[in-house]
């Protein structure tokens, strides 16, 4: 099979998927129902006599096997009991009633959820006991219709794991998907889309308290060895859970009556790893030196009363990554050339015969230079000093020597910057694409400490408190030589929660919780304070850091930048209270919470020396010759197309969201439960503690321009928030679970949910007008540059100085500039409508299966772009700013909330819990995910954002970046049946040392590819093109026999005419799929009872199979196949989504 034919493409794979669906149709099973305490579980059931009549006033004793804690309950008049707010653990349940034999059930494993445990009593003396020891309670769950999954500690420890993070396993979930441009298809945790939700649109909890940061909705997951289980709820969950279409609830470990603990070491080294596909034989595997070590201990402070758990974890992570960049050669930098001239000849692409390639129009006709009547070639540069007008067209002549810039014409600031470009170290035969191979170290040391205390005041009152601290201080490097693009990252995290559970009676329980989460991040560029702007002669710098450059062009060159300067200090306060009341057939839960968010931060890169863009427009032959010119040539000449700069203050963002709920789980019949819930939330807009906010507002009259559209600044017009408060957050939830028979259940539900208002998405108004800032861009369609690097005044005459503004709260302060990003004041809540219907069934030997239809619809979703884009009805070949909706401004980056999404899937699962030494799971998903735009609360995590017409989001409706049509995800754990306690050779202890205690496990991911968009990569000469520029389609572009050299046919596309939209669609083609296997093998040595040593080796991508990333979607990028195994250009693939085989060696002592 061709190496790139991975994913669900082979007949054999599809046959297995079909078999899995058939099995699930005949077996059918489901997932766990949730308890109504967000950090604990519940055992619920009814007690009946031999005739099926309910037994009221029966006594139910629930004893924690590990801690000895006992809770007593009494069935109500309907024979119903519910052990609300019961911690994770193993329990033994004893039911007694006068005239009946005592019934003992267990030990039973209780996770975060509600499990059904009915008591069928036999006539006789209560001093006689009927003992049932099989743990059957957790296989079928009949109390709700939600879709959820629980990863328990034992499962996570058994599966392959490189890098100890439970979030690595979320890719196993049905309906989970990543995007190749959103940190990798297999990126775990919050960066994964689940059942139609965007990454980071959920809520992360630790022991029931929120740990989701307000700025980017990101999270620091709990240390792996402190997690007892993780409950992931992704559809139709209870009204108790609020913000987020997905809930990740991490439950930490606690102490028991026995002292227990572990010590561990995890080791990784590049000597253990395999070379990735695109690493040439003479290029080293990325250096890696990784050690993670630590230990934990738990036990009793006071037996049966007070318990503790403590963990210390240290990581010394010296990783690195490799890639190729494009750096200017000596000729491009004027080194070792005649008279120091700058020879740009190598920027001109050639065909297979060595001929120059002409620039063509949308009909394939050669472009002619009006100035001299010659054909214009791709990459050919022209002298801005010769600019003139011929027959109404602005044009330029070539330099005296073709594609050579004399040394005397180079801008002094550009000349001084050349020394910061690394020297190429690779030989290429065409252009300079990929001429620099780099190895970037990514050190990331981290220290974590965790502690938890559980205290039972008595059988009716339990207190739990936990705290987690993390500290990480690391330098961040790039392909550039420091101090360019390097910075320090000092980050610390702190989270804690305390909960108090009161059982006033068997029918009334109250749980109060207060949680606090804090993250502080401080980023500082290496270049800060080194005097670089003064040394290179840059006039515009208001901060002593390296400037940020953007050098456009098809071939050259990568762009240097300063490295980020920013401060983030984020706090989350969350008091909550939940009451559970059992009345007859009703189990009522009601309560509320107050989420208080603080974001004390600066803008990302709040201090800079300016952002300068060099588009290549000023060295084109003419405006029509968009394939000529070079960004590198514009940079050498110092011709700036756009500029922006900021020095913003610290922003004290505040937001509150009070929320209340009621949930009623109604046991209509012993085999039918209906879940009815309603949640109400008030969403406050973001405000600033000192009213340092401002934004564009289309409803304010601009007194200078004489039309609407001006700035507001807090507290003008009594407006002190970026968004108005939203009071319409009514979120109903419905569900049901109907047991057709004891081994089969039909479950379903429908619900409404919202997403978090992160600062990344909703905080554009922060600090606007309260620092020094400025922005501007060329308004002449590439005729006259905005300015030059060395300052105003050049060959074109006087150029207006850059408008670097001091703090101003004038409503017209940004006239003539790019306005600050816009958020509508009346921003609606984003609603997610979720539904599912499934059939589940239980079989012998711990086998369960499920077949479910799961869907989700998103409304009021964010659509980002330029709200000042020229509308389609105003387009013309020579667009100018007067066609904009607000001509007094240039670009106005911003959002509307009128986008939608639709997700539909068929999901089939089959699982077997560990029995007979084997457990396995397999999940097949067939889905379709369409939307207008993929926007995540964490900027950039939704993948590439492409659009053409901002004013018509529906024209962008297409497959989502996360639309993976088919996936098959499976795992298996197998304990070899040899040695003590196993089926064979279980008598000889000496032999057991060699052959006993072995276990292997594997994870296999097989899925079809993500979609990608074909765009035009070139100067944008039209004010209509605020986003991506889609080409026109001439014919189908997808090859039948695809390869990394030709994944699609670039010649099937052609550039759309200037000031028009192309007819190609967003995400119209598919990237390669994924086919990867992770593997683990380990052996456990048993020293004494309860004390053991495990040695194991884990590997990701064990077969070192290359899973390729999306190809270059810029259809006009020149193709270069001269370097074997490293293609470049349109339609070629030059990277992988999964790294080469990576191994980890581990040792763990447990007692």
TrEMBL record:
Tagged with keyword Amino-acid biosynthesis: no
A Pfam family assignment: OMP_b-brl_4
Keyword Membrane found: yes
Signal peptide limits: 1-35
Segments forming domain TonB-dependent transporter Oar-like beta-barrel: 251-1144
Subcellular location: Cell outer membrane
Superkingdom in the source lineage: Bacteria
Listed Gene3D superfamilies: Carboxypeptidase-like, regulatory domain (2.60.40.1120), TonB-dependent receptor, beta-barrel domain (2.40.170.20)
GO cellular component: cell outer membrane
Keywords: Cell outer membrane, Membrane, Signal
Protein's name according to its UniProt entry: Oar protein
Biological source species: Acidisarcina polymorpha
């Amino acid at each position: 099979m061709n190496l790139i034919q991975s994913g669900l493409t082979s007949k054999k794979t599809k046959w297995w998927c079909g078999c899995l669906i058939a099995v699930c149709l005949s077996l059918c099973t489901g997932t766990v129902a949730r308890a109504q305490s967000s950090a604990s579980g519940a055992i619920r059931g009814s007690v009946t006599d031999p005739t099926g009549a309910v037994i009221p006033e029966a006594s139910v004793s629930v004893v924690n096997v590990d801690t000895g804690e006992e809770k007593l309950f009494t069935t109500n008049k309907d024979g119903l009991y519910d052990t609300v707010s019961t911690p994770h653990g193993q329990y033994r349940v004893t039911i007694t009633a006068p005239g009946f034999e005592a019934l003992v059930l267990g030990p039973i494993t209780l996770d975060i959820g509600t499990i059904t445990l009915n008591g069928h009593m036999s006539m006789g003396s209560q001093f006689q006991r009927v003992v049932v020891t099989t743990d059957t309670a957790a296989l079928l769950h009949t109390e709700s219709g939600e879709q959820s999954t629980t990863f328990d500690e034992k499962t996570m420890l058994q599966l392959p794991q490189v890098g100890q993070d439970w979030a690595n396993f979320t890719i196993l979930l049905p309906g989970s998907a990543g995007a190749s441009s959103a940190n990798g298809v297999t990126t775990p945790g919050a960066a994964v889309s689940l059942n139609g939700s965007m990454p980071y649109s959920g809520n992360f909890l630790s022991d029931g308290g929120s740990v989701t940061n307000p700025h980017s909705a990101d999270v620091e997951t709990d240390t792996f060895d402190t997690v007892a289980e993780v409950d992931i709820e992704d559809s139709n969950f209870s009204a108790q859970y609020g913000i987020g279409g997905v809930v990740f609830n991490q439950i930490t470990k606690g102490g028991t009556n026995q002292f227990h603990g572990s010590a561990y070491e995890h080791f990784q080294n590049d000597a253990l790893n395999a070379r990735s596909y695109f690493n040439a034989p003479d290029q080293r595997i990325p250096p890696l030196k990784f050690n993670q070590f630590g230990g934990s201990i738990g036990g009793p402070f006071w037996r049966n009363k007070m318990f503790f758990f403590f963990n210390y974890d240290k990581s010394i992570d010296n990783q690195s990554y490799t890639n190729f960049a494009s750096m200017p050669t000596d000729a491009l930098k004027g080194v070792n050339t005649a008279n120091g001239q700058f020879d740009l000849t190598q920027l001109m692409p050639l065909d297979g015969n060595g001929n120059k390639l002409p620039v063509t129009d949308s009909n394939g006709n050669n472009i002619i230079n009006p100035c001299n009547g010659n054909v214009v070639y791709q990459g050919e540069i022209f002298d801005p000093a010769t600019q003139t007008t011929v027959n109404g067209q602005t044009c330029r002549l070539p330099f005296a020597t073709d594609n050579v810039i004399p040394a005397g014409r180079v801008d002094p600031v550009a000349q001084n910057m050349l020394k910061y470009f690394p020297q190429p170290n690779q030989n290429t035969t065409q252009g300079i694409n990929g001429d620099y191979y780099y190895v970037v170290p990514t050190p990331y040391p981290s220290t974590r400490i965790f502690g938890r205390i559980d205290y039972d005041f008595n059988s009716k009152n339990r207190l739990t408190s936990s705290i987690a601290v993390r500290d990480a201080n690391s330098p961040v490097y790039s392909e550039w030589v420091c101090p360019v693009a390097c910075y320090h990252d000092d980050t610390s995290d702190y989270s804690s929660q305390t909960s108090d559970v009161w059982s006033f009676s068997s029918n009334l329980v109250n749980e109060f919780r207060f949680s606090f989460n804090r993250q502080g991040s401080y980023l500082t560029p290496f270049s800060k304070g080194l005097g670089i702007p003064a040394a290179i002669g840059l006039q515009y710098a208001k901060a002593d850091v390296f400037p940020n450059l953007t050098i456009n062009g098809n071939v050259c060159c990568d762009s240097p930048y300063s490295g980020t300067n920013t401060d983030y200090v984020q706090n989350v306060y969350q008091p909550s209270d939940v009451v559970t009341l059992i009345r007859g057939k009703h189990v009522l839960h009601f309560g509320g919470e107050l989420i208080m968010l603080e974001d004390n931060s600066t803008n990302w890169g709040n201090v800079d020396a300016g952002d300068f863009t060099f588009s290549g427009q000023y060295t084109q032959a003419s405006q029509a010759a968009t394939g000529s010119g070079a960004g590198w040539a514009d940079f050498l000449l110092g011709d700036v197309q756009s500029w922006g700069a900021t020095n913003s203050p610290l922003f004290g963002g505040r937001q509150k969201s009070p929320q209340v709920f009621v949930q009623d789980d109604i046991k209509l019949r012993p085999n039918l439960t209906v879940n009815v819930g309603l949640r109400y939330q008030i969403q406050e807009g973001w405000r600033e503690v000192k009213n340092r906010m401002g934004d564009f507002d289309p409803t304010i009259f601009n007194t200078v321009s004489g039309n609407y559209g001006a700035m507001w600044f807090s507290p003008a017009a009594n407006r002190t928030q970026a968004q108005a408060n939203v009071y319409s957050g009514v979120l109903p939830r419905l569900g049901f679970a109907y047991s057709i028979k004891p081994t089969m259940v039909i479950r379903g539900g429908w619900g409404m949910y919202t997403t978090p208002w992160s600062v990344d998405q909703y905080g554009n108004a922060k600090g606007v007008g309260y620092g020094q800032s400025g922005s501007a861009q060329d308004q002449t369609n590439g005729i006259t540059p905005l300015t030059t690097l060395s300052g105003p005044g050049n060959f074109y005459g006087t150029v207006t100085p850059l408008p670097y503004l001091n703090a101003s709260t004038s409503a017209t302060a940004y006239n003539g500039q790019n306005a600050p990003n816009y958020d509508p004041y009346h921003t609606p809540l984003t609603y997610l409508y979720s539904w599912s219907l499934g059939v589940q069934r239980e079989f012998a030997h711990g086998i369960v299966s499920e077949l479910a239809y799961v869907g989700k619809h998103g409304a009021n979703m964010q659509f980002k772009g330029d709200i000042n884009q020229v509308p389609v009805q105003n387009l013309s070949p020579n667009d100018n700013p007067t066609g904009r909706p607000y001509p007094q401004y240039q670009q106005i980056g911003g959002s509307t909330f009128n986008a939608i999404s639709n997700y539909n899937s068929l999901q089939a699962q089959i699982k077997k819990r560990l029995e007979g030494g084997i457990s396995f799971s397999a999940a097949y998903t067939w889905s379709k995910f369409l939307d207008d735009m993929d926007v995540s609360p964490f900027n950039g995590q939704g993948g590439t954002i492409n659009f053409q017409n901002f004013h018509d989001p529906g024209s962008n409706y297409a497959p989502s970046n996360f639309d993976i049509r088919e996936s098959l995800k499976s795992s298996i754990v197998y304990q070899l049946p040899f040695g003590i306690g196993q089926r064979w050779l279980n008598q000889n202890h000496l032999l057991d040392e060699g052959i006993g205690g072995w276990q292997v496990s594997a994870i296999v991911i097989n899925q079809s590819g993500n979609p990608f968009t074909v765009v035009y990569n070139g100067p944008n000469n039209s004010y209509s093109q605020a986003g991506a520029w889609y080409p026109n389609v001439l014919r189908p572009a997808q090859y039948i026999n695809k390869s990394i050299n030709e994944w699609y046919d670039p010649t099937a596309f052609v550039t759309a005419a200037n000031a028009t939209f192309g007819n190609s669609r967003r995400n119209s083609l598919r990237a390669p799929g994924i086919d990867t296997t992770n593997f683990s093998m380990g052996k456990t040595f048993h020293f004494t009872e309860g004390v053991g040593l495990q040695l194991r080796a884990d590997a990701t991508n064990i077969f070192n199979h290359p899973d390729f990333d999306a190809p270059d979607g810029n259809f006009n990028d020149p193709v270069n196949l001269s370097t074997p195994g490293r293609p470049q250009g349109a339609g070629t693939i030059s990277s992988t989504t999964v790294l080469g085989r990576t191994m980890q060696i581990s040792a763990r002592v447990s007692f």
